[in-house]
Design goal:
This protein is of the alpha+beta class. It has a single domain, classed as endopeptidase fold (from Nostoc punctiforme) (Alpha-Beta Complex), CATH 3.90.1720. The protein contains four helices and ten strands; from the N terminus they run αββαααββββββββ. The longest helix is centred in the first third of the chain and has 11 residues. It is globular, with a radius of gyration of 15 Å. The two termini are 22 Å apart. The C terminus is likely disordered.
Length: 176
């Protein structure tokens, strides 16, 4: 997953939060653009998990379990999986949650981390297998400049820590 996220560097050059009507399943915005969630969506897709489909199906069956930040009255398979709060809820529902920690050693390559950038602005990234000169894991993410690999694990308030549980045999997610 880390390799797939890193492969987006230099390809996804733009931060573009525009709403785009996506095909379903497997829909994606243009490869040269996206937001932080698109880095995660694309990386997990290489592991056999289509977050667009997984989140849509779970939201359709359990709509009230998801955040109502957008006052939506129904699911939208073009955007629901591209919203950090929805991904956080889906990860929690898959039992991917781990304790938030201030110890760099607790974060492994491929873990997913969410932050509050301030004023309630959410962000998500993937823990890299590379470390900074300070010994902190780098993060693969898109925060205004396209996909990058940066030392920012502890720069913002961490709101979630998740470790994907992917069934390598069937490339499906273990459902609770």
């Amino acid at each position: 997953m880390v390799v797939a996220a890193r492969a987006q560097i230099g390809v996804t050059r733009l931060y573009d939060p525009a709403y785009v009507r996506l095909s379903y399943p497997g829909g994606d915005v243009a490869a040269d653009r996206g937001v932080c969630t698109d880095v995660v969506i694309r990386a997990l897709r290489t592991q056999g998990l289509d977050l667009q489909q997984a989140v849509h199906e779970d939201m359709r069956a359990n709509f009230a379990a998801y955040p109502s930040n957008w006052r939506a009255s129904a699911t939208d398979r073009s955007i629901d999986h591209r919203r950090v709060p929805n991904l956080r809820r889906w990860f929690e529902r898959q039992a991917w949650s781990l304790p938030v920690s201030d110890r760099a050693a607790d974060y492994r390559p491929g873990d997913l981390v969410t932050w509050d950038l301030g004023r309630g602005v959410p962000h998500i990234g993937i823990v890299s297998d590379r470390k900074s000169y300070r010994g902190r894991p780098l993060i693969l993410h898109n925060i205004a400049r396209g996909t990058q690999e940066d030392d920012l694990l502890f720069d913002y308030t961490i709101t979630g820590h998740y470790r994907p549980k992917l069934d390598r045999g069937s490339a499906s997610v273990a459902r609770r």
